[in-house]
Amino acid sequence: MNFYTPGIALLKPLPGPLRFWVLPAPLVLALITLLLMHLLQSAGEATWVIGLVLLALVMWWYLQVCFFQITRGERDRTSAAMKAASEGDLASSSYSGIKTLGNFGRDFEAMIVNMSGIVANIRTAAVLLGDTGKKLVDDTRSLA
């Protein structure tokens, strides 16, 4: 069993906006607990305060790394597709059906399709322009 499996199991079924509310939860809960301890006059013991702060930071770090593990695959696919598109390969795909990162992969896929259409239109226009130029030269020669 992977060390991050429990955190991934907690975060993965959550939709994106809710994940961003869960990630800072340990820090918020620690702050609320410290405020309650202060109001109840039991915050005098420094070991409790230091322990609580350290526990909250460790839990926050753990959830951040779990979130990073969840999004790593999609980030890698999107990065590979962007690199391929920047090198001229407009046939690559980055969308995997996973709704994370704001559906960035799907939007990037639509952009690549649109760019392919633009390139096809430019090539068609270039061929038509070449044919028109050839016809113009042929017509000029026939008039001479």
Explain how this protein is built.
- It is a single chain.
- With 144 residues, the protein is mainly α.
- It has one domain.
- The chain is built from 5 helices and no strands.
- The protein has helices at residues 5-11, 16-22, 25-39, 46-86, 104-143.
- The longest helix is centred in the middle third of the chain and has 41 residues, at 46-86.
- The radius of gyration is 29 Å and the shape is rod-shaped.
- The model has no long low-confidence stretch (mean pLDDT 79).
Helical percent range?
over 70%
Give the helix tally: 5
How much β-strand is present in the residues? Answer: under 5%
Give unreliable regions as ranges.
none
In terms of structural class, how would the helical and strand content be classed?
Answer: mainly alpha
